[in-house]
Amino acid sequence: MTGRRTRTLQMVVLVIFIVILGRLFYLQIVDGDRYGALSESNTLRREVQYPPRGEVFDRNGEYLVQSKECYDLMVVAREMDRRGFDTVRVCSVTGLTVERLRRALANARTQPRIPYKAVEFLPTEAKLRLDELNIPGFYTVYRTVRQYPRKIGGNLLGHVGEVPPSLLKRDPSYIKGEYYGISGVESAYEDVLRGKKGVKILERDNRNVVKGSYMDGRYDTLPEPGKYIICTIDARLQAFAEELMQGKVGAAVAIEPSTGEILMMVSSPTFDPDDLVGRERGNNYMSMLNNPRKPMFNRAVSSRYPPGSTFKLVQGLIGLQEGVLSTSTAYPCSMGYHFGRLKVGCHAHASPLDLRAAVANSCNAYFCYVFRNILDNKRNGGNTKDNFDRWRDHVLSFGFGRKLDSDFIGEGSGYVPEREFYDKRYRGSWNSLTVISLSIGQGELGCTPLQMANLAATIANRGYYYIPHIVKKIEGQDSIDSRFYERCYTSVDPKYFEPIAEGMWRGVNVGGTSTGAMLQGLDVCGKTGTAQNPHGQDHSTFLTFAPKDNPRIALSVYVENGGFGASAALPIASLLEEFYLTDTIKRPWLVDYVKNKHIYYPSYAKK
């Protein structure tokens, strides 16, 4: 009996030993990482070190976007001293209401070991006061926020905001609470501007008091600041353009023809970019989102407008290329184009006109003849629909009907209809008269202001353009994307551009619809446009470049409901051209006229 009891006892001891050994194996090997992490979390705190976001300069080295320091107040609920916590004191330092602070603490307690951002945008003074209080469970994290010295370019520069959950899932390089570029330059060049985060590891004792850097900072990493960007924008020109466009809905874009650099890009109405920084940014954002004039919508790159009479320049070029038009070809105009019951009206001017005079006087009838000759051309053995395809291919080569591939987020493609569109609408039965409105830039045609400014640059260059872009230089890089240095040629022979440029010059300097844009000694070339608007007064547009030879600026202005091209868009474009080319304004009376001319949609009038 004694031997049996001894063996039984031995077996019990062996089983207990095996269980203990198995449990040790599980704790050390199988689940060691989890318990190691828990142990480490009790003694170590990892603090994210956010890098300063890269700054943005204009082409002349002036600040457009700067970064200033601020702090986030983090709370770890597990480390708080709830008995001695002074709610009123924390609220007085941070500027929070008691209700908001209690709500933040309640959120922090849902994951008591994880730091929770209780307050953001704390100034340096508040941070220093909190450091003096040394409240258990609370610490501050350095970061930078944007500030805008000029307070211009809201749509152009864009804004930053907190990373949404959807992006956190797609890109693990972001963490909760981090900021990223949401729109404009901030978004387009996010990878350049954001920099790289660092980390600081702090060691705590058994009372959760920080003793200092873990292992003397051996495992800390420093943040890498974002790179600065030099924009192509001229800040003074941008600011002046925004002043002139106040009280109007539309856009203005200026390009340097020899490089494709965007000198100015204004969408009106715009907004003060500082309104989307700080604790009130949420309220300001919702206010702008509900504004019927849509100040956050970038009309310069996203709106689809009918180009109106500015598109006649393209028709003339295609007519010359297709051999159905010569510079001496003259057509009559009897207050418009007439064919049976069809009439496309026109204003009073001399008749008949040749190509240069038709451009200068913006004759509707002339370009109706040209467009019909293009579509009804029999020389190449084609029919109307085949010729329409040829015409459309020419139009696309100017950058219409597609994105220009600029470096701007949200760029629209505009619209150039395909033959299939008309086949479906008219059940296959249509001809050149059916689509005659295209001849004067109406009908289904849609263009962005950026595309129209690019047309001005293309004519200024006599047949080619550089892809418009907003960034001139990136810190640490010898050059920007190679696509911005390549010439993009149209399908029209360069020799045909000279008479079109000559017609634009005559329209300004000899006598035509653009005489109000004349600037002594600067050889301005221009083309007015009045785009029909079924919802109210016509839209006003003007396309220009100067000087005629070796041009330095190409510009397009579009004013919704502005009426004739010469009445609203032309004065704005002319003042911008004068300011950029001469660095002065000699017509202050015209500045006053433009600033006092407020034009809104009728539905906006009471809002």
Can you walk me through this structure?
It is built from 21 helices and 20 strands. The strands form six sheets. Strands 2, 3, 4, 5, 10 and 16 form a six-stranded mixed sheet that branches. α10 runs antiparallel to α20 (569-582), α13 (312-322) crosses α15 and α14 (355-361) packs across α19 (497-509). The radius of gyration is 33 Å and the shape is elongated. The termini are far apart.
Total helical segments: 21
- Give the integer mean of the pLDDT values: 89
Roughly what percent helix?
25-40%
The poorly predicted ranges are 34-40, 603-607
Count of extended strands? 20
The oligomeric state of the chains shown is single chain
Give the overall shape, derived from the CA principal axes: elongated
- Content of β-strand: 15-25%
Distance between the termini: 103 Å
Largest sheet: 6 strands, mixed
Q: Specify the structural class.
A: alpha+beta
Rg, rounded, reads 33 Å
